[in-house]
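User: Could you go from structure to sequence for me? I need the amino acid at each position, not a summary. Structure tokens:
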């Protein structure tokens, strides 16, 4: 009983209330996927990689700490991060367990990196991460020659020993997962020969773009409607200068907020619009959202634009399951948009959401229902009957449960802006894992 009281005392609840329109210009945090990979690949290059715009959330800092523990120098100098790498094959045995906090990306990608280095490491994580299955990366990395001792169910804490003589493999992804793809490609960097990943459904391609940028010999072909990605091992990576664009998954919360709050006219600067990540923009436009791309440009091989978003009435649609990989992290806030739309929104093919930081299908169904939305949970998605623009009831005497999931917390914060009584989330602390500046930015845009 004392433990649960103590956990409640540590929680940081907040009621997000309706207020005026969102106006002005904001800049969201740096892209989390690109930030993780900048640190990892910089640590494997020989020389100094310089990164600006790095996301300084807890997840990326866990990656930085792990790379330091294995011999790389990772330091912040002014507004710039400087990474002195050890070279492919040069990672050192960490002296203590690698604490991944809440970051599934850090865990799975680092398992890939270590799989072809003859060192042993133990991975630990917080309560949420320790519930997430790692079997999907253990399976292909075992074929390469790595050995694993996970907790029951293939979960953390987990000990692994990389292969003495890693074997190049050809691996067809059984599920669409950029993390699994990236883990195998990273393992291939220190594996003699050609490592191949076959991707039946395209997923975010930051790893491919960045590996090429750092000098890896990586090829992508379309064969029979599938992507075939090959990387040549024993790579010699060159240090880079990287400007990290704004994270589209973070911008998503402000896109939806400005769309559903009357009178809003907000510019979100420097948003990455990689086509493997920008699915939400197109889905919102299909629903009637006014999202204009300003000053479209390329930054470090990634398409970027400033997004002007104005309030617009939305209409429910049937979301094509094929877009799911390009917006998998944005569905929680899309469900909020659907709850305010005219008519019914149907989503399918979202089984992946059940094994995120929380079961995001069940968590959002419960949270939106508590706030007065009409939601039906299915095996692989949600069916949402919208209010036609009328504010949600809100949660007058209850807190919605975030299940230690940052995206549930932020999605329901946005729901609170379009409610009568506001929405109280049980804990805002998880937001720091991906978007520490979320609350100040949200408050400032409504000032």
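Assistant: Here is the amino acid at each position, in order:
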């Amino acid at each position: 009983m004392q433990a649960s009281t103590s956990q409640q005392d540590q929680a940081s609840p907040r009621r997000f209330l309706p207020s005026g329109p969102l106006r002005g210009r904001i800049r969201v945090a740096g892209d989390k996927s690109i930030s993780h990979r900048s640190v990892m690949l910089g640590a494997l290059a020989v020389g100094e990689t310089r990164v600006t715009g790095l996301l300084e959330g807890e997840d990326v800092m866990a990656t930085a700490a792990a790379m330091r523990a294995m011999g790389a120098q990772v330091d912040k100098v002014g507004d710039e991060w400087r990474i002195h790498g050890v070279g492919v094959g040069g990672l050192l045995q960490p002296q203590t367990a690698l604490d991944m906090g809440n970051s599934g990306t850090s865990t799975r990608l680092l398992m890939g990196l270590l799989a072809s280095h003859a060192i042993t490491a133990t991975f630990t994580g917080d309560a949420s991460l320790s519930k997430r299955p790692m079997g999907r990366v253990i399976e292909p990395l075992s074929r390469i020659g790595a050995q694993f001792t996970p907790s029951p169910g293939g979960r953390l804490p987990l000990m692994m020993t990389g292969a003495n003589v890693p074997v190049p493999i050809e691996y067809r992804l059984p599920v669409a997962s950029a993390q699994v793809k990236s883990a195998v490609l990273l393992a291939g960097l220190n594996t003699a020969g050609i490592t191949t990943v076959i991707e039946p459904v395209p997923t975010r391609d930051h790893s491919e773009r960045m590996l090429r940028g750092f000098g890896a010999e990586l090829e992508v072909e379309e064969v029979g409607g599938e992507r075939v990605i090959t990387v040549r091992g024993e790579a010699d990576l060159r240090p880079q200068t990287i400007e990290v664009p704004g994270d589209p998954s973070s911008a998503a919360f402000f896109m939806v907020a400005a769309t559903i709050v009357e009178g809003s006219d907000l510019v979100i600067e420097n948003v990455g619009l990689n086509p493997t990540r920008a699915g939400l923009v197109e889905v919102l436009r299909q629903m009637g959202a006014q999202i204009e791309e300003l000053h479209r440009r390329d930054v470090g091989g990634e398409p970027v634009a400033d997004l002007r978003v104005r309030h617009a009435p939305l209409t429910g649609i049937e979301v094509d399951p094929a877009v799911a990989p390009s917006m998998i992290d944005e569905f929680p806030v899309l469900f909020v948009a659907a709850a305010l739309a005219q008519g019914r929104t149907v989503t399918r093919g979202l089984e992946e959401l059940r094994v995120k930081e929380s079961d995001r299908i069940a968590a959002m169904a419960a949270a939106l229902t508590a706030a007065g939305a009409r939601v039906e949970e299915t095996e692989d998605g949600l069916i949402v009957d919208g209010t036609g623009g009328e504010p949600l009831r809100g949660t007058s005497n209850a807190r919605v449960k975030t299940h230690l999931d940052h995206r549930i917390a932020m999605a329901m914060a946005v729901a609170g802006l379009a409610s009568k009584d506001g929405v109280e989330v049980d804990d805002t602390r998880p937001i720091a894992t991906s978007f520490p500046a979320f609350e100040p930015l949200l408050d400032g845009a409504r000032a």
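One structural detail worth keeping in mind: Residues 32-44 form the longest helix (13 residues).
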